[in-house]
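Section 5.1 Outputs to date
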Amino acid sequence: MREKILNTQLAKGQIALFYLGQVGFLIKYENTYVMIDGYLSDYVDRHCCSEQVQWVRKYPAPISAEELDFVDFVLCTHTHFDHADPDTLSVLAKVNHKAKYIVSAANVETISTYGIKKSDILGLKADVKADLGAGLAVTALPAAHEELHTDSEGNYLEVGFRLELGDTVLFHAGDGCPYPGLTQRLAGADVLLLPINGRDYYRTVVCDIIGCFDSREAVLLAKEVGAKLLIPTHFDLYDVNGVNPAHFVDTLKTLNPGQGFHIFAPGERYLFAKN
């Protein structure tokens, strides 16, 4: 996969998205590489199983952290291990000495415990745009992982990232649910990457698995925003917290049949151009 990423040629205004599994993506824009929520190990399987829940990856990561010495920015939406993976991040810190790590201001301390120098971590306040150079900018938007959670200083523990890649606006939700004001924050977004695994009593209360958007909520949000492309995430890696994407397609074709969408296979590349 490394060679496919590096050898991908982009026309002016194009971006390339490569699916890493779960909610992880690597994005190529011109000569810049951005990874969001890359989970490239089986850390969850080894550390998070309980009597109620057995976490078992359904497929291996399509690329290893050792191969990512070329990545420029590493974004983590929150500190759950399938979004900020200690094994992936600690290896990246050893093999890649140029990457900058972007997280919520609430999560700088946690991320720094994975072998990453604090000088390489940018902790973002919510709703404040950060210019990354080379035509890129990022804004951390509050994410309601069922609810909005903040630290003692009012910084959000979970965020999504609004990325401006030249003229293209992409939003990666991480984990989250709809809340008042989210649609307004996403005004002008071209591409939405939204989880569709949903939430229910048995997962939240019995299994202590915090939920996300369901398919209906994802489709309706994309419709409100007017997004050109909707990409469902968080449905395919773990059976205990996954859903059948056919339900997403059925929902989309019922509620907004004209909505552009793409369902990824692990390691797949997708080229997007706004015009």
